[in-house]
From TrEMBL, chain A:
Keywords, sorted A to Z: Cell inner membrane, Cell membrane, Membrane, Transmembrane, Transmembrane helix, Transport
PROSITE patterns linked: ABC_TM1
Subcellular location: Cell inner membrane; Cell membrane
Membrane topology label: Multi-pass membrane protein
Transmembrane regions listed in the UniProt entry: 12-32, 64-87, 99-120, 140-162, 198-223, 243-267, 298-320, 358-378, 390-411, 431-450, 471-492, 526-550
One of the record's GO cellular component terms: plasma membrane
Keyword Transport assigned: yes
Ranges of residues in domain ABC transmembrane type-1: 60-262, 352-547
InterPro entries named in the record: MetI-like (IPR000515), MetI-like_sf (IPR035906)
Region forming the signal peptide: none
Organism listed in the record: Anoxynatronum buryatiense
Protein's recorded name: Iron(III) transport system permease protein
Homology family: Belongs to the binding-protein-dependent transport system permease family.
Pfam families linked: BPD_transp_1
TrEMBL record, chain B:
Keywords, comma-separated and alphabetical: ATP-binding, Nucleotide-binding, Transport
Originating organism: Anoxynatronum buryatiense
One Pfam family linked to the record: TOBE_2
Domain ABC transporter: 2-232
Record PANTHER family: SPERMIDINE/PUTRESCINE IMPORT ATP-BINDING PROTEIN POTA, SPERMIDINE_PUTRESCINE IMPORT ATP-BINDING PROTEIN POTA
Name the record gives this protein: ABC-type quaternary amine transporter
GO MF annotation, one: ATP hydrolysis activity
SUPFAM superfamilies reported for this sequence: MOP-like, P-loop containing nucleoside triphosphate hydrolases
Cellular component GO terms held in the UniProt record: ATP-binding cassette (ABC) transporter complex
Enzyme Commission identifier(s): 7.6.2.9
Taxonomic path: Bacteria, Bacillati, Bacillota, Clostridia, Eubacteriales
Amino acid sequence: MNRDKVIKSLVYTLLFYLVAVFVVFPIGNTIWRSLQYDGSGFSFHWYVHFFSTPTNLMALRNTITVGIFTVAACLVVGVSMAFYTSYFKTPFQRLTHMVMLSAVMLPGVMIVIAFIQLYAEMGIINHLLQTAFHLVNPPLRFSGFWGILFVHSFTQYIYFYINTKIAIAFIDYSLVESARNLGASRWQVFKDVLLPHLAPALVTSALMTFATGVSSFSAPYLIGRGYRMMSTQILHSKMNNQMSMAAAQVTLLMVLVFMTMGLYSYYNHQSFQSRTTKTKKFRRVRVRHPVARGTMHLVAGIITALIMVPIVGVMILSFADSSRWMTEIIPSEFGLQNYRRILAQPRVLDPIINSLKMSLQAGLMATAIGAVSAFLVLRNKGMVSRWLHFLVLLPMAIPASTLGVNMILAFNRRQWFLFNQSLIGTYWILPITYVLAGITIASKSIYSAFENFNREYEQASRNLGATRTQTFIHVFMPMVSAGIISAFSLVVMRSLGEYTISALLYGVHNRPVSIAMVNALHDYDIGISMAYGGIVIFIGMVILGVITLLDPNYK
Amino acid sequence: MILFDHITKSFDNKPILNDIELAIEQGELFTFLGPSGCGKTTLLRILAGLESPDQGRVWVDGHDITSIPPEKREISMVFQHYALFPNMNVEKNVAYGLKVRRISRDVIMERTKSLLNLVGMTGFEKRDISQLSGGEQQRIALVRALAVSPKVLLLDEPLSNLDANMRDRMRREIRALQKEVGITTIFVTHDQQEAMTMSDRIAVFHQGRLVQAGHPMHIYNEPVNEFVARFIGESNLVSCQVFPEWFSGVKEMKACIRPNALHIGGRGQVEAQIKVVEFTGSTVMYDCISRQQTIKVSVEHIQGMKPRETGEKVWLSVKDGAVHGLQVNS
């Protein structure tokens, strides 16, 4: 065996070891635990118990209801805004696009907290409306099902937005022209040409949004007020130390999401095929009718404002003097005191340092694994590579709450394949789980960059006398670095404000900023909570800038 | 001299090259000609070291280079889509081969400048690749390959992305440059006109086999089989029964007669009826029907002369020595 083959075999072995230990084993272990009862061997006891408990059934029903309504709401928000920024000729498209992308960058928990500060019973906007209209009770009821749906509508629209935007960019304009030439009206062109073209993107977006909607944790946990969903039931079972019940709930949620993701990969393939026939670039449409144009700008303005308000709210409130603010509707004193407190007290600063450290580590690990596996999968088309590709993308189908429970059940005892170590309670459990949560997005971004790299450049370089190393440094890396940086940034950002996994797995060694933010909110230390949010927003904006510059999918 | 010594290559059990044996002389402009999928590019890539043969050896100047990695072969290639590095500007692309050889900066600068001057692209040094037209990219790809002073230059259908006028111009430029530099050059194309106008010698490939090699005129005038006769220029392949007085008794032969070797009008040998008339500018092309066979006749167009009409009955005759016999199914 030559040197290259030995290195390749070693890399494959290491990658398969990592996915076997951290992806396959935790899933298998959870399913196995859910099928065990009181040491009596194989049993469906926990499933029978689940389906005979009304609260569990209600949680399952609520979860599916939230999933369906989330899809409908996000379809309206995402698709209308994709059309606004890509299909129609409109002003400030780049700026509006950046606002729309903020949902990718900002942690869900932070937006939920911001919504609470603004729209909850004691929230600023509710207070203002109550005062302005002299109402007895606050007008907005920002909790339960409608609260969750409101948050989801303005945080989970991203799949609809991005996929519709890409599909619009790939519309073959000659099809539109030929339809018009054959006598089709604008409506017929939309119905017969545009809609069939957009359909695969809409179906895949609906499935992805459904998967994220049913997996959502921070919104139902923080504003659900008794509205039970599967993710909160899982946490409830964990808190009550009913880990076998949690395992059954996790398995059911995984089945629901796996089925959705199975459909997703089927339709995604179709969507990809329909994108490969681009011939003439799409031309933006000008809305001539003044009423229609005004309505369009108004709707887009409202949606953009609703997305912007929590971000701006967090930024402003992070400068508010929280000691005075409790007695006022709107804070009147502003300063840097919250940020000073964070910087002055190591106990308050630690969560930020922890989160930065862990998210950078997770970013590096996920990018390295994503890059190596993408390289192997693209260069070797055999069965082994296809399995590796499948296993690396598998975590995409595992909701964060499920991932957390899987990790607890798998690593709360010493395991021989981890050199007789237990991970729960250690610092590393969070970075490793962040890697699992981010590996799919990293792999996809890097895979796409590598796939677009034309191998003729590499051959041309070798042909001109460059060695493999010189080719890698001078030709390959500069051309794929955008995808790698984008993958790294996305994982860092997602890990930086991650809440669900953190809530299940954090310990004294690694308390992250998202937990500190929620804890500060519960302690009515709202200024600190918002200042944490302000720091995360600042980092998020920097990363958003980097990604929109580099990654064609976000441009 | 380059020698392909019984080269065989398959991809996924599909044979691509079958026992190719071919010698190319020093300083020649040699063309691999054939339809898509005939194996010509694979043979070129084997010479560049980008593919390995399943069997056979490749020799350059008496050295077996079969196992030498591409970067050590001193053979430069111009790729079909040029493969100019988009992350480097014009100057850096041209200098790349010299830079990876750790040549001094001054020498690189000087060589880059003189090469850009050679192809009339002085002043383009700092341009991005995306700012260049197809023809400009083609020239940069060519001088990038020449910058490292290779022993052999390989051109893989470099003109296929250019429009007709630019292709014609670049064809002449490449030929002139090759003569000026005196480098052994192998050119791959599926365009027989391109091959005929540029090459010292041509090798015609079909289904992974080398069918015929030789001077362009020799291949045109004396094709070895029906495939070459049809692929190189227009031809009438007429069964012997049609002209029994020429090939009496040799019934398995076909006659290859080029359209310009037929004379139309007067009292000829075969009576035919004109079915299609095509005016191409310098010639008028007639499709004539005689005994259920279509015969193409090309007649020089003289200004002021009216072409014959469709449906007109005419006599055809063959110019002396213009018939070439072919083996059927060879």
